[in-house]
Please model this.
Amino acid sequence: MPDMLIRDGLHADVSAILGYRPSRDCSADLRIGPDAWIRSGSTIYCGSQIGARFQTGHNVVVREECTIGEDVSVWSNTVIDYGCRIGNRVKIHSNCYIAQYTDIEDDAFLAPGVCVANDLYPGKSDSAGMMSGPSIGAGAQIGVNVTLLPFVRIGAGSLIGAGAVVVLDVPPGCVAFGNPAAVRGRVDDLTSIEERVESVTDSASRYRRAGRGSISHLRGLNDDR
Model:
């Protein structure tokens, strides 16, 4: 039976479960680095290797055979399925699903509701045998409620707009959005946030769009409203 090798400084709420045994065959140890914080309702399966200062929100699931780097946070109600690789300083927000065999590189960010798929033809045995999640490059930013389909490659430093369905690769440093997502420009061409918004004092939202301007805020792509 696999062991748990957990370093000093662990804070685990009473209802957190560490070392849950999967129905799949898994003989590897669960290893968690120092100063982890596992919040209530979260379950970490045996057979994963997790670096220092790992944090979960509430009701997070991390399945077996995952490799997770240092300073990673996974927020409430997110599931990381088995066989994933996640780099250092990755932030995965609430209500995300990360399918088996997904690769996320250092410093990437996944906003709430991101859904990752890994089976191109569900229900077909040959497709099930070739399951593969996407690869998300270093520093990529994946917007709210984005869907990433199997096999795609999201380039380093790219930005995927909210609600996009990504079916093709996105080159490094690009902005893509839509369904299906299309490359619309470069991150370097985005208008600065200071130019896009103005402060308000009568609302909890703090800021609003500054007058009229392009929704896309990319050169050569205008939709003034």
